[in-house]
Amino acid sequence: MTITTPTRTELKGHLVLPDRIMPGRIAFTDHIQAVMPDHAAIPDRYILPGFIDCHVHGGNGADTMDGVQAIHTLARFHARHGTTTILPTTITSPWSHVIEALGAIAEITGTTIPHGPNIHGAHLEGPFVSPHKLGAQPPHALAPTPERVAEVLALGCVRIVTLAPELPHAADAIQLFAQAGVRVSLGHTAAGYEQTERAICQICAAGGTTGATHLFNAMPGIESRKPGPATALMCSDAYAELIFDTHHVHPATFRLAQRVMPDRLLFVTDAMRAAGLPDGPSLLGGQQVVVEQGAVRLPSGHLAGSVLTLDAALRNAVAAGVPLHQATALLTRNPARYLGLEDRGRLHTGRRADFVVMDPALNVLEVWVAGQQIA
Ligand SMILES: [Zn+2]
After folding, report:
1. If you measure from the C-alpha of residue 352 to the centroid of ligand 1, how many angstroms do you get, rounded to a whole number?
2. Where exactly are the structural domains of the chain?
3. CA-CA distances (angstroms) from residue 317 to 16, 23, 87, 258, 311?
4. Mean pLDDT throughout 200-207?
5. pLDDT tens track for 76-93
6. Which residues are annotated as a binding site for Zn(2+)?
7. Which residue range or ranges hold the Amidohydrolase-related domain (predicted)?
8. Segment 290-314, tens digit of pLDDT
9. Binding site membership: which residues?
10. SS3 for 218?
């Protein structure tokens, strides 16, 4: 039997740490062995922890609903944009199709795709959503009955479930999911402030962690006498996804959320299969959509998913005035905390060697997953 020692590699650059940016070096194998300040001959580039995308349907022509090979394709595409941990996300579809898609994700959960990211598990987005707040989800919403919840939990791969708390059986489903360690992400909901607050309390009482699915989108807005679900989520200890492609959320609305919840806000792409492809017609959950200048719309004009990548979201955040190290937390440290992944999300000794190397304009130069540079 031969035992191979993993080779030790070093990267030099401006290290993006949680509280500052430091010129230095990182030594690593598949995990980080040392993070050292170094002021000598530091190349003009940034080194960031690998990005974590909790909500992504597709990219480069592939969609999560199409099975394992398609997930490989979309995951590799997003890895080239800095995503080193990914949660392939289903879309509201007939129940048998949802279960089939989750079965495919279960096959590769916990693995790292060659030249791609680590697959942490699935985000089940739909069918447990409000038929009145579908957004771009096809009209196959279902109630989270105990039988359906049991079927999902038996597959063992769902890490996040999007759930509208006003649905029949929602209270029981919240308890079952939260007790099983699944993050309950409130969203695609018509619930008001009080109902959302009650759901947050139920998740907490079951020992769970609350999330919000694309905060502000597919939920009622904030008004003077109707604070709505967004206020309940922002004022609790919930984590919240944000699609910051500047189409779904205005830069000022992003800054508001970032100030209120700097440690609980997380960027997601919600990207669809057209991400990375030229403008033109595409398909989302079997529906015709059109991609034009970074926005995806249904024929009705309704926004439908995105063609965002996480590196672009980071550039948008910095352009909106958030310092780079604070913006970086939104795609690294915060989603890692949300998911309970203590082995990643920071440049720190002992963490996974997942890195994104970026030029001064924040374009991706290199991506490393568990100490291996991806092509
Ligand atoms: Zn989505």
Report:
1. 27
2. 49-344
3. 15, 22, 22, 10, 10
4. 98
5. 999 999 999 999 999 999
6. 125, 188, 214
7. 46-373
8. 999 989 998 888 888 899 999 999 9
9. 125, 136, 188, 214, 217-218, 225, 248, 303-305
10. coil
CA-closest candidate to residue 78, choices 20, 46, 120, 43: 120
Q: What is the pLDDT of residues 154-179, one digit of tens each?
A: 999 999 999 999 999 999 999 999 99
Residue with tokens 């100030």: 259
Active site residues: 270
Quickly count: other Cβ atoms within 10 Å of residue 363's Cβ. 12
Which two structure tokens, joined as six digits, stand for 18?
A: 């949680």
For residue 91, the CA-to-ligand 1 centroid distance in Å is: 7
**Of residues 249 and 299, which shows the higher confidence score?**
249
Model pLDDT, residue 135: 84
Distance 321 CA to ligand 1 centre (A): 26
- Per-residue tokens: 173: 């489903």
In CATH terms, is domain 49-344 a member of 2.60.40.1120?
no
* Ligand 1: centre distance to CA 48 (Å): 26
Q: Which residues pair with 85 in a beta bridge?
A: 52, 118
